[in-house]
Amino acid sequence: MRRGLKTPIQVLSLLVSTRSSLGFVINRQIATVSINNSKRRMSSEVRENESFGETDQSWRSLLEVSIAKSRKIRGSNYVQIATTNENNEPRCRTVVFRGFFNNLPENHPMTLNGGYCDGKPILMKMCTDLRSKKVEEVAYQPISEMVWWFPKTSEQYRVRGPLSLVGDDNDDRVLQIARKELWGNLGDPSRESFLDAATTKIGSGGRDDEGKVVPPPANFLLMLLDPTYVDYLRLTGAQYRQIDQRRQSQHGGDDNDDDDKSQPYWSSKEVDP
User: Fold this and answer.
1) Per residue in 116-152, pLDDT tens?
2) Which CATH architecture does the domain made up of 59-172+219-249+261-271 adopt?
3) Where are the chain's structural domains?
4) Can you state the angle between helices 8-21 and 23-41, rounded to 10 degrees?
């Protein structure tokens, strides 16, 4: 055998000896790697060495930032909506958030009732089918709750408020315009799901022979969530939880004046996670 080479038994013996003499160091290194990998896997775990501090922003401003950070993530606009049926049983499903009602006139009842926060619109647009169970549930109990989770930033919003359903029988011109705009902005496959296959050409995408979008069918409903209570939770860094609530303030005036003096405003407070 050539000088300097060791037999397989000698090599094995050397490895065992090295592991025995450095076992503590090796085990410690493995433990360190395991901890680091665990932190990478659990991105929402609270880490005391990081802190974002408190925030004095409203839920609406916080949500705007959360949406912007997650805009490129597929499915980031999927939210969960919970309603109650006539037996007082909860029902929850996933729907698509279609944006805020940006062009609501200042004199519209929904605006006067508190349609803005920090100068930003708060009415949240979605759509549903007249044939779905949630229509009956909203008629029974309009108060619902939305849950919106942002995995990239480990933030959760629970938004509570009444749901309004706008069909073709609604005589509010502003809401009808918003309903038609939403219908036109849907993708072709989404529009097809609202159309009766027996009377609509398969694959038409809700378009006529000239390629123009057909009017929304009677079963297409604009669904609006009007937030009155928002529970915000942030898990990244130091945990932070904030409750925002819409209230009515009373302004003084002539006691003989019968006009309504109440005006909506949002209050915000930090609470324990």
Assistant:
1) 898 899 999 999 999 999 999 999 999 999 999 999 9
2) Roll (2.30)
3) 59-172+219-249+261-271
4) 70
